[in-house]
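ok so I'm stuck.
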Amino acid sequence: AGPAPLSSRAVSAAAVRIAPPATGRALAAAIPGSKYLEIADAGHGLPIHRATETNALLAEHWTRAEQLSK
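replied:
not stuck anymore, here's the structure
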């Protein structure tokens, strides 16, 4: 048996200039099985300004990662 599959998610804020959504899409495309999500009406500081949404995404991601590891 090979290594367990990895769970990966790239999240971009639509209005970020430092790391624009195209960068997040490219990152997700380069990682097999990765999921991409772009958050509209969000800019730099996404985890701070949209903390509830960010934390929900992280919780969902970790739950999926844990399920894949079993």
